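Chapter summary example.
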Amino acid sequence: MKKLLVASSNKHKLSEIEDILKINGCDIQIVSPEELGCKEEPDENGSTFEENAFIKADFYYQRYHLPTLADDSGICIDFFDGKPGIHSARFLPEMNYQQKCQYIIDQLKDSDNRGAQFVDCMCFIEENGNVNYYKGINRGYIAKKIAGDKGFGYDPIFVIPEYNKTEAELGEEYKNRYSHRAIALKKWIIDAKDKL
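The structure predicted for these 196 residues follows.
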């Protein structure tokens, strides 16, 4: 079985990527940095999703020289001029995600400008060092209240217009087929799975 190093310590993300690969018929063994005994993490100091994805992928590729896939993702909210964007995980660090979601809802309570999008940029470094990028964007809007318990992060406030439900209400089956991460990963599958 082919091995793919996924440059993340986020168990939710690793599980999601594994599920998306399975749904799309990919017989690939995912290896995490933790499984390789690596406790170091790169300093994600890029100014774009692409830069941060490359920083992560290159950090682990230089150590293990395995085909390496990293992604950087976040929610971009129109009301906040596209923020928190690349800072989504570090946005309001003193709060947990439930509190962050409520803060966003409170800020938008009197606004009709509720548009938002989840963005995922993947960087894949082949065993020979070639670098490839794949991007997925999922457009929606911010809910008026937190809803659903089948997601994580900002999923409970991100509404998919076609369903009028949050990603946390729609759950894994939806996310593994249509989320920003699924869109980016499907592009990788089409282009790069034979490069492992």
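To summarize the output: The two ends are 10 Å apart (CA to CA).
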